[in-house]
Amino acid sequence: MLFFARKSLSSARIVLALTIAASMLWPVAAQASSRIKDLASVEGIRENHLVGYGLVVGLDGSGDSLRNAPFTRQSLQSMLERLGVNTRDATLNTNNVAAVMVTGNLPAFGSQGSRMDITVSTLGDASSLLGGTLLVTPLMGADGEVYAVAQGPVAIAGFSAEGDGASVKRGVATSGRIPNGAIIEREIAFALEDMSTVRLSLHNPDLTTAQRMANVINTFVGGSTAQAMDPSTVSLTVPQKGKGSVVSMLTEIEQLRVAPDSPAKVVIDEASGVIVMGKDVRVSTVAIAQGNLTIRVTETPQVSQPNPFAEQGDTVVVPRTDIQVDDDAENRLGLLREGVTLESLVDGLNSLGVGPRDMISILQTIRASGALQAELEVL
Known about the structure:
InterPro entries: Flag_FlgI
Signal peptide: 1-32
Subcellular location: Bacterial flagellum basal body
Protein name: Flagellar P-ring protein
Shape: flat
Helix content: 10-25%
Keywords: Bacterial flagellum, Cell projection, Cilium, Flagellum, Periplasm, Signal
């Protein structure tokens, strides 16, 4: 009886261990896939850039100097003339006005009367937009048509202050934002419900990912609804039962999960020394040795004086030179076996005491030797 009790207890422990292991492996499998919503976007549903030129007023002496910014003076005079004030023959010397460029993104399906955020940036020599208010500024698209009108107080995240002996500056005070600062005046017509074919554009073009996405959609919808046209496009034919309810169909499709695939790639930014390597990077058998000859020369001159109460003698400077040579004799030749993983590659280079800068040169040399089985991209 005791034997069977122990056996049951042992079986219970095995079941518990398997349950814990399964619960630990389940999140890993879930993280391997991503939603179609995060991998692709629907062509046609996009933002549009808007730009405009305007004036910010109400600055506390931190605006453009009209002598150095003639466009600000001309804009100020034109604005005052439209308001019935003639200043053509007057000498303007105000410094509380700044000429600015206003930019914003017209959201997809932005309706007339809704609002959007805008960014305001100085054009002249204004030092700060703190406390300023943007006057009415039309925002135009690439076609030259006005799609929104902006106005409102500018909010900035930086400030600057200075005195005779010191100055303090934090952030950028010459650029700011106006939340909901523009009103949309014109809509961009786009009839999504009337479309018979919808194209999904992949954020990271890849043949395998595009085909997997088409297969997942076909399994969910049925038939051959989706087709991978190229590495960056999946064409989706709206079925007869889905016409008139394209939004509902896309809502369900974008929640489907696909395991994205990506090529083995090493990206190097030589300016900052940043290295990013994908998980599929492999290296063939290669031996690596890294070392530099460093010669350090230090000058420490000393002063030589005659003994106290000496009848003769001069005070002279005696040179003292210290030369040190570092040939990295302690560094050893490192061997990376064929098919090593990214983790093994990084561990091997770190064991040689290789820094990011030297690692960039080593990776480029490995790629030149043909041992790096990955694409090398240098920014």
